[in-house]
Amino acid sequence: APAPVTVTVTGAAGQIGYALLFRIASGAMLGPDVPVKLNLLEVPQAAKAAEGTVLELMDCAFPLVAGLEVFDDPTKAFDGANIALLVGARPRGPGMERADLLSANGGIFSVQGRALNEGAASDVKVAVVGNPANTNALIAASHARDIPAQRFTAMTRLDHDRAVAQLAAKTGAPVSSISKLAIWGNHSASQYPDITHATVGGTPATSLVEQSWISEEFIPRVAQRGAEIIAVRGGSSAASAANAAVEHMRLWVQGTPAGDWTSMAVPSDGSYGVQEGLVSSFPVTTSGGDYAIVPGLNISDFSRTRIDASVAELLSERDAVTELGLL
Ligand code: NAI
């Protein structure tokens, strides 16, 4: 059997953590042959609840689980980590201003960036799920001097999957027939779900739907799906977010299928006019554990306006955390 892969999950006692850990332990993320050592990081107040999840993980008797440990010390939790899923974050509390939120999370993600720098494995891959995910990834990367910034990504795969599901429902086609959909920008209401390059069973998606559906129904529905889930379910998206985290990392490690791509927020290399260094969502292909922003796509005027608006929000988040001294 291959050597176990060490996977550190933060926010392990939270809603997403509860849905995520069992999927990883079952082999959904790294495949049916790869043993996993799970390191669970929580704040001290929630460490006991995480221990409870460990009891249940034991009771699943998953053959791939090579280790299970709970930590409240980031340095220990990230020691030897090959994969880090940064799910734990500070939610926006009543009366909290945006600056308070950025600063509370800046405290968390700067500490975790330094801890990753100290002890993570040389091949570490990081996906930030906790919001504001893009900017949290930027902060963590800036505090991990010795790790290439490109290893720090933020999750927009849930937005991608939501968009695929909406296009499938609209066209009556199976989700498996849809390729080359892309999420651009920030994981926030300003994101741009883009179907201009997408195909449905090989047919251009834009020839199957009206422009008014794209701008008035599709984009707002995908961008506000999180709020819709809260309104209907009475709780935030947890299982679908966990599934997207599994897919984000599965595709990064195992590669995207030929003729398709995924969406990931990654440090910009200046592609598509997105300022270098900003962690922004792009269509990416992956292979051999590396990813590449899909080059050379035609960007319509409509797309340009949408991408620019979301990138402007990322710039303002970066300015705010710079002002707070968090970068
Ligand atoms: P939750 O509140 O149920 O769980 C968060 C957990 O993180 C709590 O157990 C808390 O104790 C822990 N935590 C807080 N600070 C920590 C730290 N410094 N170290 C380790 N653990 C820490 O929240 P839920 O529903 O699991 O969501 C987690 C995050 O994911 C939220 O920020 C949410 O906004 C975000 N999210 C992102 C999505 C995306 O598409 N990128 C989709 C859905 C949620």
Description:
It is a single chain. With 327 residues, this protein is of the alpha/beta class. The chain has 2 domains: 5-154, NAD(P)-binding Rossmann-like Domain (Rossmann fold, 3-Layer(aba) Sandwich); 157-317, Alpha-Beta Complex (L-2-Hydroxyisocaproate Dehydrogenase, Chain A, domain 2), CATH 3.90.110.10. The chain is 42% helix and 19% strand. The chain contains 10 helices and 14 strands. It has helices at residues 15-26, 47-59, 74-77, 98-119, 133-142, 157-171, 211-223, 225-233, 239-254, 301-323, and strands spanning 5-10, 36-41, 65-71, 83-86, 125-128, 152-154, 178-179, 182-184, 192-194, 199-200, 203-204, 262-267, 279-287, 290-293. The strands form 4 sheets. It has a 6-stranded parallel β-sheet with strand order 3-2-1-4-5-6, with helices on both faces. The chain has a 3-stranded antiparallel β-sheet with strand order 7-10-11, with helices on one face. It has a 3-stranded antiparallel β-sheet with strand order 12-13-14. The protein is globular, with a radius of gyration of 19 Å. The chain starts with a strand and ends with a helix. 44% of the residues are buried. The structure holds 1,4-dihydronicotinamide adenine dinucleotide. 1,4-dihydronicotinamide adenine dinucleotide is lined by residues 10-11, 13-17, 41-43, 46, 87-91, 108, 129-131, 133, 155, 158, 187, 236-238, 241. It catalyses: (S)-malate + NAD(+) = oxaloacetate + NADH + H(+). NAD(+) binds at residues 11-17, 105, 112, 129-131. Its EC number is 1.1.1.37. Residues 6-149 form the Lactate/malate dehydrogenase N-terminal domain. This is Malate dehydrogenase.
